[in-house]
Structures are given as C-alpha cells and as structure tokens.
Amino acid sequence: MLGQEKLDRINALAQKKKTVGLTEEETIEQLELREKYLKAFRKNFKNQLDNVEIVYKD
C-alpha cells in the first residue's frame, strides 16, 4: 500500500487542483500517484476476495 506521505500528497494535489489549478509537472505527478494508488487498491482488494470463504448454513 502507499505510505501516508503519498496519500497526503494525492490529497494536497486534489485540493490545489480545485482551488488554483496545477502546473503541468503537478498534473503528471498526480496522474502517476493516482495510478500507483489504484494499482495498490486493486491488489489489496483482490487479495481480500481471494481470502473470502463462503459458508453455507445448510
């Protein structure tokens, strides 16, 4: 998973985009960080689903 520092940076860039806008470098950084975040999220979610065991009552 991404560290707290990178999550804070994603949030800071999102807030800046809403208020004053981003430079070209910041936009690229934001896209890269989002991609890393989504990749980590998908990996963790897949691991969760792989560990789910369905138990029937009968």
UniProtKB/TrEMBL annotation:
InterPro entries according to UniProt: DUF896
First-listed, main subcellular location of the protein, grouped into a coarse class: cytoplasm
One Pfam family here: DUF896
Protein's cellular compartments: Cytoplasm
Keyword terms of this UniProt record: Cytoplasm
Family: Belongs to the UPF0291 family.
Protein name, entry field: UPF0291 protein QE109_13200
Species for this entry: Fusibacter bizertensis
Phylogenetic lineage: Bacteria, Bacillati, Bacillota, Clostridia, Eubacteriales
